Amino acid sequence: MKRRKFIQSAALTGLGLTVGTALTACEDEKNAAVKTAATGTTSTNTKPVRPLVIATWNTPLAVETAAKVLQNGGSVLDAVEQGCRIEEANEKGQSVGKGGLPDRDGNVTLDACIMDKHGNYGAVLGVKNIMHVISLARKVMEDTPHVMLVGEGAEKFAYEKGFKKEDLLTEASKKAWEEWKVKSEYKPIINIENHDTIGMLAIDKNGDISGACTTSGLAYKMAGRVGDSPIIGGGLFVDNEIGGASATGLGEEVLKTVGSFLIVELMRQGKSPQEACEEAIRRIVEKPNSDFKNFQVGYIAVNKQGETGAYSIHEYFSYNLYKEKENKNIQSDFYNKTK
Ligand code: SD4
Hints:
Layout: H1 3-13, H2 27-32, E1 52-56, H3 60-71, H4 76-89, E2 110-115, E3 121-127, H5 133-143, E4 148-150, H6 151-160, H7 171-183, E5 198-203, E6 209-215, E7 236-239, E8 243-249, H8 251-256, H9 259-268, H10 273-285, E9 297-303, E10 308-312, E11 318-323, E12 326-331, E13 333-334
The structure holds N-hydroxy-L-asparagine.
Residues 95, 195, 197, 215, 217-218, 227-229, 248-251 line the site of N-hydroxy-L-asparagine.
């Protein structure tokens, strides 16, 4: 049964639907007022928060850039693309774009994906020598019949589209790699506090949602390794009727639970963004033999109503949130409270 139909029939049969006073105007406001039998969660927020931008980690400039695009009447897709480009160009961020830490052979390879309000998706995986892979992912989405391009093919496509070739390995990341090589520990390094992979979700004044995610992946990964960030439903998922989610942290764990898709589907079933993020983290940590003490995963989510959620396994995950003209960095709640 189509969702709209289900909601209507739920209203008729009293299947837990509550309709607020301001809910006559548009469909998404009606959706936000759904109280599900499964969770008993009711949205009390009848006026949607718009525009809104949320992004993983301490990324004030990226979020501000995206917010400005929206304030100036730009598209929500432009907003997330422009926001992510800020982090890609930030050489200090060592897990995204230029200055990203390389793989164990010393090559910086980037992954990115983007989703628009129509559910279109584009991604590039394992790309060398191109800084703005988020824009390249958008070109894949808009200018090719495909959704993903990988490695050399993606790089060739970039040059065809006028992207500049550049060395992404900075002196600082080269030095870090050389130090790592001394011991060359096989274990993927994923620290808990300082990531900068950026996953960004935005809603424009009409309530349309887009998302983007860009990373250099795990530091010192095996050559050819791809994480969750460019994979639809893993590092990012957007459904314009429901909301969006994005992930950061150990991509292997996000992929095994299809984290961002899971969060959006949980919101579809009536969970708040916060409840959905918490459930997605639980799916990882409560697996038998989960090694969660040794890795971090963090999620952000937003629903159509502009309610947001964030949750991580360990302390120190934060996100930037722009809403009602304020741009704040907020510490996320987390699962592992034992020190
Ligand atoms: C990955 N999720 O490639 C990315 C890594 C990350 O901050 O988020 N780093 O698995």
